[in-house]
Amino acid sequence: YLLICDNLLDFSHLSYVHEKTLGGSTKIAQARPQIDKLPQGIRVTRYVPDVPPPAYYRRMREFTTNLDRWFIYDFLLPGTLLMHSGGRPTGSGANATADPTQPSADSVNLHSCQTLTPETEHSTHYFFQQSCRADQGDAAMAQTLFDSLLVAFNEDRDMITAQARNLAAKPGVPMVPLAMDAALIQFRRLVDERIAAERPA
After folding, report:
1. How many CB atoms lie within 10 A of CB 130?
2. Sign of CA dihedral 141, 144, 150, 156
3. Taking residues 105-131, what's their average pLDDT?
4. How many angstroms from the chain centroid is the CA of residue 135?
5. E strands within 77-166?
6. What is the pLDDT of residues 167-176, one digit of tens each?
7. φ, ψ for residue 15 (rounded to 5)?
8. CB 36 within 8 A of CB 158
9. d(Cα 179, Cα 26) in Å, to the nearest integer?
C-alpha cells in the first residue's frame, strides 16, 4: 500500500518507468513540484514546459508542436489521488500564472481518480478512473485511453513488485529518502500521525 502511495506521490518516475507511454521526456523528472499541505493530505503541482507529446496523447489528437504539460493533484488519506493533468501547445498557458485546467480547443484535459484499498500487509487493491472531455473523442477513444493506461499501470506494478521483493529480502535496511521524495515523506508522516492518534492510550 505505502509503496504504491510513494509511486503516486512522485511523478518523476514518469520519465523512466513510463518513458514510452505516459512520460516521454526526462524534463518531467527535472521539474520541481510544489507541495502544499491539506487537512487530509497534500497537493502536488508540477508544470513541465516544452516537451514532446506522450504516446497516449498522440492517440487523441495530432500535435505539430511540443506541449506545456501539467499535473495537479490532491493525494488524500488514506490513499486517494484526485488529479487534473493535460497539455497545451508550448507557450499557450500551462504555467504558474495561468489556469491550465481551463479547456481550450488545442489542449488535452484529463481528470483521474485513483484509490487504494489495502487487502493484507503485502497486497492492495488498486482502483482507477480516467476521464477526458467529451469533445476529445468517442467511445473508441475512451477505450484507447483505457488500454494505454492499463499498459502504464502494469509498468508500475512490475516496478513496485520488484521494489517490494528487494525490501523484503533485507527488511532491516532502512530506505534512504532523497530530495525528490519530499511529497511521499510528508504523506507517510501524516499516515503515521493518524495511526498513532487512533491507537488506544
Report:
1. 17
2. negative
3. 90
4. 24
5. 80-89, 108-120, 123-132
6. 999 988 888 8
7. -65, -25
8. no
9. 17
